[in-house]
Amino acid sequence: MGSLKLTSITKAFGNHEVLKGIDLVVEDGEFVIFVGPSGCGKSTLLRVIAGLEDATSGSVQIDGAEVASVPPAKRGIAMVFQSYALYPHLTVKDNMGLGLKQAGTPKDEIETRVTEASRMLSLAPYLARRPAELSGGQRQRVAIGRAIVREPKLFLFDEPLSNLDAALRVQTRLEIARLHRQLKATMIYVTHDQVEAMTLADKIVVLNAGAIEQVGSPMDLYNKPANTFVAGFIGSPQ
Ligand code: ADP
Ligand code: MG
């Protein structure tokens, strides 16, 4: 389970309307990419879905239930950011398990889930290290591991690879694609990298100035862009 339905979502900061009526359905298990220029509202939309910001109007439903009054920790969502936000004084193992510990998960259950996630992410040899002793790619994998151990219905990734160099970006992208198949989880992923969008997505949502320009499969958008904005963004001939 992990379907999402957004209906007429708006978000204003003061009199600046950042989201202007977003309607979107994400099916359980889909990999959906949000693309669009810097400042168009991608991160704000993820934060509204996660409950880190309240929408000004509109509704967010997860698995058919309105979540307006559900706090972020209870939405079954895990978010992975561009900055890894790991605790420098904690080991990899404790960084990955901290959220579960805070939620009162029994110690042996935390141990099991952290061990399993560290295997999936090839982090098993590094569990005793601290973030400063890891490469950027390994740190980002710890941040992904921290999301996986919570067993969320919905993963939200906000430009997770943009701090990595080109080779690591490719490797981590393939790893995220593999995790998606393995976990069968719903994933929403923000990027401004066309290659990431075209290779990862079941469905791409093109945003521009707080509104959706087009939603479709990578091939739909490439072959039948709704307008020159989409064509320019996806890189199809105009
Ligand atoms: P993106 O992720 O697509 O680059 P954001 O969602 O971060 O865009 O931002 C969209 C717009 O909302 C920007 O103009 C940004 O300055 C504004 N914004 C985002 N968060 C806040 C906030 N907390 N207060 C005021 N303005 C904000
Ligand atoms: Mg952003």
Largest sheet, spatial ordering of strands? 6-7-8-3-9-10
Oligomer: single chain
Helix content: 25-40%
End-to-end Cα distance, whole Å, is 39 Å
Sheet with the most strands, sense and barrel status: 6 strands, mixed
Structural class label: alpha/beta
Give the overall average pLDDT: 94
Runs in which pLDDT lies below 50 for 5 or more consecutive residues are none
Give the count of helical stretches.
8
Q: Helix and strand succession?
A: EEEHEEEHHHEHEHEEHH
> How many strands in all?
10
Bound molecules: adenosine-5'-diphosphate, magnesium ion
Strand content: 25-35%
Shape: globular
Radius of gyration (Å)? 18 Å
EC number: 3.6.3.-
Protein name: Multiple sugar transport system ATP-binding protein
Membrane topology: Peripheral membrane protein
Family: Belongs to the ABC transporter superfamily.
What does this protein look like?
This protein has 238 residues and is α/β, with parallel strands linked by helices. The protein contains 8 helices and 10 strands. It has helices at residues 42-50, 92-102, 107-120, 136-148, 166-183, 194-200, 218-223, 228-234, and strands at 4-13, 16-26, 31-35, 57-62, 65-66, 77-80, 154-158, 186-190, 203-208, 211-216. The strands form 2 sheets. The protein has a 6-stranded mixed sheet with strand order 6-7-8-3-9-10, with helices on both faces. The protein has a 4-stranded antiparallel sheet with strand order 2-1-4-5, with helices on one face. Helix 2 crosses helix 3, helix 2 (92-102) runs parallel beside helix 4 (136-148) and helix 3 (107-120) crosses helix 4 (136-148). It is globular and about 50 Å long. The model has no long low-confidence stretch (mean pLDDT 94). Bound molecules: adenosine-5'-diphosphate (ADP) and magnesium ion (MG). Adenosine-5'-diphosphate (ADP) binds at residues 13, 18, 36, 38-44. Belongs to the ABC transporter superfamily. It is a peripheral membrane protein. Its main location: membrane.
